[in-house]
Amino acid sequence: MAPGRKLNVAIAMSSFFPDLGGAQVTAHNLARYLTGQGHRVTMFAAWSSWRKLGARRAELGYRLLPLFPGQQSLMPRLGWPYQFVQDRYFSWVQRKFKFDVWQSFGTYPTAVSVGRFTLPRNIPHVLRTVGYDIQKDPDVGYGYRFDPRIESLIQDWAPRVSKAIALSESVKPDLRDIGVRDTQIEVIPCGVDQPRFESTLVDRDAIRNRYGIPIDRFTYITVGRNHPKKGFPVLLDAMSELKQAGTLDNVHVVFVGNAMSDLLPRATELGVADHMTAIEELGVDPDDREFRIPSTPLVELYKSADACVFPSLIETFAMINIEAMSAGIPVISTDAPGCIETIVDGVDGLIARAGDPIDLARKMEHLQSSADLQAKLSAGGRESVRKSFSWDVVGRQFENLYFSLVDPVAPTP
């Protein structure tokens, strides 16, 4: 490998902005990082995402092209005719841009489509899981793999990738379950732009007033789409436990994400609705010409809170935890897969038993009653992000992996 060599990287995912989730955030920030290092990046996303972004595509900082329409719905039904047409499209862009490596987000449909193209051409192909594509939880109806047609495609094509990225150790068994060998697996976590969080100045009272959040209460923030796997009803039950114990009076919880208002009837039933604020998803900021994700309004909300509580039951990686750490606030999360890997209990956060509102309430009481503990965990969280989760660290891991596949005999830069 020549010193200073720059790569042509194709990143493909079926769902992209304006839809917002951990995978979309990581793909975007990975593309921005690689571009900043001088590599040439082309992102491929669903036709619908490409169309919805419209003129804002020019603000991404890298090239965005559409995938062939109908990946999710047509590929399982049409089979080889669909793949034949898609291969013609991939062949055209490969000739045009001469990609050194393809990076897929999601085993299905993206890695299946890309793998069918890259494998016979000996082009390196890296799979990065996203969660629902590989994990299965029948209790909350979570996962693609309950569909036998999709499961068959995943089992057939996932083992053929060059490398498979697990976001955490918890994901390794899921990759093995679909036939991926240990020698193919690399653990690379999500990353966060720590300098941006630290440099964002916030008028705490002004932000709280903007959203109707009480200024004088100890305020937790929790973030995510309102899906059963996120465990938000468990948090409501924990708030009810605090109320019964007489420790909820000066506490408030801000729920940020899609369909969070659906939690209000349960909160009212438990008598805790006056201690919560539901804010719908703060996605892509239309006024941010730099297309920074997470959006500035969300960063401001993190930094105006006193702590973060994330009660998830299953994740591939708890992005919320490291975002909160970057914002300088202490974090309480759970021992669920994908959450426990982000926190060292008592060092940079607190761990509660997943699905246990009583244990979660006790952890909340412990944190909100101790300023010394809050300061200790905040400092520990910032240091953990600096060492393990900043984009300087995570982006370099992606780079080194790509170089090892493109020229496996040469040292990585």
In short:
The chain has 413 residues and is of the alpha/beta class. The chain has 16 helices and 13 strands.
Average predicted local confidence, pLDDT: 92
Spatial shape: globular
> How many strand units?
13
SS content category: alpha/beta
State which percent range the strand residues make up. 5-15%
- Biggest sheet strand order reads 3-2-1-4-5-6-7
Give the helices and strands as they follow along the chain: EHEHEHHEHEHEHEHHEHEHEHEHEEHHH
Estimate the helix proportion, in percent.
40-55%
Evaluate the radius of gyration: 22 Å
- The number of helical segments is 16
Could you give the distance between the termini?
9 Å
The major pleated sheet works out as:
7 strands, parallel
Low-confidence stretches: none
Give structural notes.
With 413 residues, the chain is α/β, with parallel strands linked by helices. The protein contains 16 helices and 13 strands. The strands form two sheets. Strands 3-2-1-4-5-6-7 form a seven-stranded parallel beta sheet, with helices on both faces. A six-stranded parallel beta sheet has the order 10-9-8-11-12-13, with helices on both faces. Helix 5 (107-118) crosses helix 6 (148-157) and helix 9 (204-211) packs across helix 12. The longest helix has 19 residues, at 371-389. It is globular. The N and C termini lie close together (9 Å). The relative contact order is 0.12.
List the helices and strands and how they pair.
Blueprint: E1 8-13, H1 22-36, E2 40-45, H2 47-53, E3 63-66, H3 71-78, H4 80-97, E4 101-105, H5 107-118, E5 125-128, H6 148-157, E6 163-166, H7 172-177, E7 185-187, H8 194-199, H9 204-211, E8 218-223, H10 232-245, E9 251-256, H11 264-270, E10 276-279, H12 296-304, E11 307-309, H13 319-326, E12 331-334, E13 350-352, H14 357-368, H15 371-389, H16 391-406
Parallel strand pairs: 1-2, 1-4, 2-3, 4-5, 5-6, 6-7, 8-9, 8-11, 9-10, 11-12, 12-13
Helix pairs in contact: 1-16, 4-5, 5-6, 9-12, 10-14, 13-15, 15-16
